[in-house]
Amino acid sequence: MTQPNLNIDATVEFLVGLLNTPSPTGYHIEAIDYVRRAFEALQIPGLSIHLTGKGALMAIWSGERDDQPRGVTAHVDTLGLMVKDIKSNGRLKTTQLGNFMWTAVEFEGVTIRTHDNRRYRGTVLPTNPSTHVNDKLRTMIRDADNMEVRIDARTTNAFETRALGIEVGDFVFLDPRVEVTDTGFIRSRHLDDKICVASIYGAMRALRDAGLRPLQETHILIANYEEVGHGGASGWTKPLAELLAVDMAAMGDGQTSDEFSCTICVKDSSGPYHFEMNNKLRALAKAHNIPVKIDIYPFYGSDGSAYWRAGGDAIVGLIGPGVEASHAYERSHKDGLRDTVHLIARYLLGE
Predict the structure, then answer these.
(1) Cα dihedral across residues 210, 345, 226, 257: positive or negative
(2) Is 234 in contact with 82 (CB distance < 8 Å)?
(3) Alpha-carbon separation of residue 193 from 172, 227, 291 (angstroms)
(4) How far apart are CA 346 and CA 203, in angstroms?
(5) How confident is the chain (351 residues) per 10-residue block, as mean pLDDT?
(6) Which of 170, 224, 308, 311 is the most buried (most CB within 10 A)?
(7) Cα 166 to chain centroid, rounded
(8) Can you give the pTM of this predicted structure?
(9) Residues identified as active-site
């Protein structure tokens, strides 16, 4: 049988472009368009693409058969901020999009996007941020009331900030700071879950380059609301027999996952994934010499969980490459990306 042709360099190139495209939850238009154009550029026979009502991307790939349609999903939405209030000093109080530690974004560069697409640079700071003036800075609680965005424009009051076009509800994009090292590491914010969108892209490309197509009709959902819990809950055009969710593997003390491997998650905060699907993924990995980790994530949910909660009746599994320092400045490795691409490709081809 012809083998899938893995092109990890092209997959990393796609990933870097996606990481540099802002997409905090609620603002998906640029990233979804980036993925749509990349999928269309593959020129895969039998692939149709449309947007769902919620703005997610759905690609339907005709297979050798269509009696047991499958789904594959990853999410393009990320963490970010939104303007909650314009303070009397002209700076911005923000609310989080997603859930993260304020210390994880302290002193990070940002871009403020107004509703009419004016853009300003800025920085996330604690209030009174100079250590030469504020001797309580080291111990000050970091929360929404004590953090603000300093705008790189001349403003000292709320009136001047509003004159810039900035208003409550504007999105604030965190700088991703993407770096691919010569040792194979990929450092960036928002690898959760853009590295998994890239993994799906890489698997699609691998099958296309080898002249292959999936065994079953496959519905590929690039979701845009996972970080707030309902990305995979809708958008499916027909009932599925199976769903493979692709999301980052959670690393840390007590975990088996690492940056160099693909992980099969058998349980997270929502409960166990489907026993038969887990075993199917294990068998595929073993048959094709794909090294995998088996892990449980203690504080985690996926779009597979969202699909089930919304009434989905397919068997569901969850895989993904290990990502360290999740919801902060994250890191993974090309090896974990490669093995995830490979396992997705084998899943698409397998019984």
Answers:
(1) negative
(2) no
(3) 19, 10, 21
(4) 9
(5) 90 98 98 98 98 98 98 98 98 98 98 98 97 96 98 98 98 98 98 98 98 98 97 97 98 98 98 98 98 97 97 98 98 98 98 94
(6) 224
(7) 27
(8) 0.98
(9) 226
Q: Delineate the domains of the chain, giving CATH numbers in brackets.
A: 8-78+190-349 (3.40.630.10), 80-174 (2.40.30.40)
Q: How far apart are CA 141 and CA 107, in angstroms?
A: 15
Structural tokens at position 310: 């919304």
Please give the Cα distance from 66 to 62 (Å, whole number).
8
Return d(Cα 40, Cα 14) in angstroms, integer.
13
Q: What are the tokens at 226? A: 């996972």
Tokens of 4: 């899938």
Q: How many CB atoms lie within 10 A of CB 106?
A: 14
Place of tokens 């949910």: 301
Peptide bond into 295 cis (omega under 30): no
Contact 317, 279 (CB under 8 A): no
- Give the pairing of strands 292-296 and 262-268: parallel
The closest alpha carbon to 235, from 6, 243, 227, belongs to 243
First to last CA, the chain: 14
Cβ(310)–Cβ(234) under 8 Å? yes
CA dist 76 and 301 (Å) reads 15
Task: For strands 249-250 and 242-246, give the pairing.
Answer: unpaired
Angle between helix 275-287 and helix 334-349 axes, rounded to 10 deg: 110
Total length of the chain: 351
- What pLDDT does 346 receive? 98
**What single letter denotes the amino acid at residue 237?**
T
- Angle subtended at Cα 85 by Cα 79 and Cα 91, rounded to the nearest 5 degrees: 90
Amino acid 1: pLDDT: 62
| Residue 2: per-residue pLDDT | 80
| CA distances from residue 116 to 31, 119, 299, 335 in whole angstroms, order as listed | 18, 9, 37, 41
| SS3 of residue 93 by DSSP | strand
